[in-house]
């Protein structure tokens, strides 16, 4: 990462992340001009509004956005998979080791706030483990699994990391109860079905981690969202405002969202 940044989420310090990550979080409303950031060379934390590198954030207006009337909308449907899936029956040996399809969740593995990143390949996980950026208690998920699982439970653990997996106690396992927020995406101009993991959700927008996203900045997206609990479902429309680094997904800002949908999102966040 050429330029590393940190930001404050609640009372937790998060990072290092790329500058574009900060910009993406700002676009979806996860961060704002009063949020604190830090990078090498700073004597102390600064508000985003005080940082020259982010001077362009929030300076635009809706009138300056690309005209929706000349953008072909990207139809997206986000829903829970109807087929019951089992981690135990998932065959990790069938995954191409260079295919980016695994999402990770950090937080439980280091006693901090939870955050999702990815998608990564098995070979990238191997390198990250070697560099001590992830560990056996890092949670992983990929399409075809029922829910998050510990890296230590990966059948290929010993082969990939050249050590015996540690024993994870039942207390820690019981804390891993919330299923991933899955987005299944159907695009009107393609036959492929994309499945990703939603993250950094707010009433302003969200990010979706998905490999090979076929859309572009400015595309309009219609969503029918069903997280792991149908009590939090909602519908909304939004605009793709940023493509994440490395083709890892995109940030979306809501442009048409009801009060009922905002309430559902707020309740989901409160119960996360």
Which features does this protein show?
Thrombin, subunit H; alpha+beta; 3 domains; 272 residues; 15 strands
In short:
The chain is an alpha+beta fold and 272 residues long. The chain has helices at residues 19-27, 122-130, 157-161, 170-174, 259-270; strands spanning 5-9, 12-17, 36-39, 46-47, 74-75, 102-106, 115-120, 139-142, 149-150, 182-186, 193-202, 205-209, 220-225, 234-243, 249-257. The protein has 3 domains: 5-58, no CATH class; 68-79 and 181-270, Thrombin, subunit H, CATH 2.40.10; 92-174, no CATH class.
Task: Report on this structure.
The chain contains five helices and 15 strands. It has 272 residues and is α+β, with helices and mostly antiparallel strands. It folds into three domains: 5-58, no CATH class; 68-79 and 181-270, Thrombin, subunit H (Beta Barrel), CATH 2.40.10.220; 92-174, no CATH class.
